[in-house]
């Protein structure tokens, strides 16, 4: 600590000012005393214009002034002079801290040592805590990353599961559940918009015999080929092709009336005739039942439309297969 900073602000002109104050007091005090004595005499009965009265008053003024000046000198000016001298001394010779002064006593040194040790320990422990916190933060961000990855994987799995729940495993087409939803949705839309909606039920002919002749694996591959063909033939965004199970497929064709659907289904039958089945084995035909809803030919419900297509398929089968039958 700098001792100079503790010293009162010094004023080099202080002793000079004090002596000038003393001179002023030596003039002012007798004057003020004379006035006071005069006032006192006047208030006590007026001035006595006799020589003895003036003389006594003069002596009284002198005596009182001397007493006051002595008192002022002793009680005020002298202490002030000492103070000024002290300030001047501090000013001119500030006390520096000598190495001896600065050196702590053995007791203080031991105490300082202990404090130093304690502070080093605290600093060490703070550093360790900081390291631990960094490590924790690193671990936390790794865990968060893993969690995000797991979450993404879970979402992907859920999406896949949801898609599997609506997909036919063998062919990748929509399954019965997805088709039922699509049929309800498209039927309502067609009703609302007074639009067209065609529904074809497509069933392989004598597939049992095909399976028996070429084996289930060839049968599976044939189902996959036909599914791909349907997918290729009905590829508008609004078309829905599904496998309902076994060797039965459906095509839901929004915006198509009976005639347009019939045309495209005949093309499908042509495709089938030229389709090369796995291992070049045999050929397959299909029977198709077609129903179409329109404002001119409305159906009460989606189920009613489906039933009409099923009945048309039944007729096609009983009429000898490999044909397309239209619902009444
Ligand atoms: N390979 C294979 N065969 C299947 C699959 N699902 C059903 N089948 C077979 O398809 C055949 C269907 O036989 P049916 O219902 O008698 O029909 P179909 O022989 O086609 O006779 P129609 O429909 O009257 O022309 C059965 O032999 C089933 O085992 C499948 O996923 N893979």
Automatic annotation (TrEMBL):
Where would you find the membrane-spanning parts of this chain? 25-45, 57-77
**Keywords in UniProt for this one?**
Coiled coil, Membrane, Nucleotidyltransferase, Transferase, Transmembrane, Transmembrane helix
Indicate the segments annotated as coiled coil, or none if absent: 133-167
Q: Which Pfam families match?
A: GGDEF
One GO molecular-function entry: diguanylate cyclase activity
Domain spans labelled GGDEF? 195-328
Q: Which Gene3D superfamilies match?
A: 3.30.70.270
Q: What class of enzyme is it?
A: transferase
Give a yes or no for keyword DNA repair in this entry. no
Q: Do the record's keywords include Coiled coil?
A: yes
EC numbers, comma separated = 2.7.7.65
Q: Which InterPro entries match?
A: Diguanylate_Cyclase (IPR050469), GGDEF_dom (IPR000160), HAMP_dom (IPR003660), Nucleotide_cyclase (IPR029787), Rev_trsase/Diguanyl_cyclase (IPR043128)
Q: Spell out the NCBIfam families in the cross-references.
A: GGDEF
**Record's protein name:** diguanylate cyclase
Q: Which organism is it from?
A: Pelomonas parva
């Amino acid at each position: 600590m700098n001792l100079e900073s503790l010293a009162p602000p010094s004023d080099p002109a202080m002793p000079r000012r004090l002596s000038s104050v003393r001179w002023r007091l030596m003039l002012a005090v007798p004057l003020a005393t004379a006035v006071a004595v005069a006032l006192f005499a006047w208030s006590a009965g007026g001035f006595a214009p006799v020589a003895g009265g003036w003389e006594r008053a003069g002596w009284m003024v002198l005596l009182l002034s001397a007493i006051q000046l002595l008192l002022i000198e002793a009680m005020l000016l002298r202490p002030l002079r000492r103070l000024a001298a002290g300030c001047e001394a501090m000013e001119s010779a500030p006390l520096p801290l000598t190495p001896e002064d600065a050196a702590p006593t053995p007791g203080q040194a031991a105490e300082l040592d202990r404090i130093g040790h304690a502070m080093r320990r605290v600093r060490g422990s703070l550093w360790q805590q900081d390291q631990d916190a960094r490590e924790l933060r690193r671990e936390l961000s790794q865990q968060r990353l893993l969690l995000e990855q797991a979450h993404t994987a879970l979402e992907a799995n859920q999406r896949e599961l949801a898609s599997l729940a609506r997909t036919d495993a063998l062919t990748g087409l929509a399954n019965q559940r997805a088709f039922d939803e699509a049929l309800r949705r498209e039927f309502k839309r067609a009703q609302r918009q007074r639009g067209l909606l065609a529904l074809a039920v497509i069933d392989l002919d004598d597939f049992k015999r095909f399976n028996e002749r070429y084996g289930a694996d060839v049968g599976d591959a044939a189902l996959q080929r036909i599914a791909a063909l349907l997918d290729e033939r009905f590829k508008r965004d609004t078309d829905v092709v599904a496998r309902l199970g076994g060797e039965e497929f459906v095509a839901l064709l929004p915006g198509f009336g009976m005639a347009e659907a019939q045309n495209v289904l005949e093309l499908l039958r042509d495709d089938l005739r030229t389709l090369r089945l796995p291992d070049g084995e045999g050929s397959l035909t299909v029977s198709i039942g077609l129903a179409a809803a329109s404002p001119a030919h409305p159906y009460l419900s989606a189920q009613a439309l489906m039933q009409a297509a099923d009945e048309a398929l039944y007729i096609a089968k009983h009429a000898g297969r490999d044909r397309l039958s239209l619902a009444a």
